Amino acid sequence: MSESGGRHTGPRRLSPTEDERLFRTPLEQEPPEFFTSTDPWRVLRIMGEFVEGFDTLAQVRNGVTIFGSARTGPDDPMYAAATETARLLAVDGFTVITGGGPGIMEAGNRGAQLAGGTSIGLNIELPFEQGSNPYVETAIHFRYFFVRKTMFVKYSIGFIVFPGGFGTLDEMFEAMTLIQTGRIKHFPLVLFGTHYWSGLVDWLRDTLAAERKIDPADLQLFRLTDDPKQAVALVMQARATLRALAADSREGPPGRGVF
Predict the structure, then answer these.
(1) Which end of the chain, N or C, is surrounded by fewer C-beta atoms within 10 Å?
(2) Which of 139, 147, 163, 193 is nearest to 70 (CA)?
(3) Residue 138 CB neighbour total at 10 angstroms
(4) Could you report the per-residue pLDDT of 148-166, keeping only the tens digit for each?
(5) Burial of 65 (0-12, 13-18, 19+ CB in 10 A)
(6) pLDDT digit string (tens) for 162-215?
(7) How far apart are the C-alpha atoms of 205 and 199, rounded to whole Å?
(8) More confident residue, 11 or 88
(9) How many CB atoms lie within 10 A of CB 139?
(10) Which domains does the chain have, with CATH numbers?
(11) Distance CA 239, CA 41 (A)
């Protein structure tokens, strides 16, 4: 399973997750016995997750999130590529952020640790057990997907997306949408593994763009590579651009900044 999921390595929980409870319609819900089972209480819990995330990650600079399948084993070439990519990121001063689980996420945290860099894992409550991998140094455990996704975007200056499933695709298209709509700028989205992503890219070009469901220019929102060094170079270019823009904003007249 992908970045937001995990392998079915533990016993299934009998009780629903907090996300599942949140998205129940009123018709599905029994009258709450306790205030802590009501939606107003969940608002406070959601607020608490945001506060914990912002507080824990407040000092993160130059974060890069690595996404990919939780099912990728250590003998898979993509595991080695993700480890090397994360190692190079850490060498160049980037903080490596993952979903905190196994597979590609483990490889990302492992690579950061190999280089003595900062290794962060943002885990999620699931109907089956998934703990943090042993290479996570700073871990946050979320109940709500949308809170976790906010942290990935807020504390990253780019995403590197390795082969994965639904969760990986979800994060990838979320980033594409935010870039396309101008919500985030100068944000590199690197798809690692040209063979794996080629069918999707062909569909985006030959169906979505051809039928004008997206602008052909939207195909430039992401880059493909099979080279860890190139993936890191693309992120470094974005960091240089952001630093230049920040410097112009501080030194220029009021209102000149882009952030």
Answers:
(1) C
(2) 163
(3) 17
(4) 999 999 999 999 999 999 9
(5) buried
(6) 999 999 999 999 999 999 999 998 899 999 999 999 999 999 999 999 999 999
(7) 10
(8) 88
(9) 16
(10) 59-213+222-251 (3.40.50.450)
(11) 40
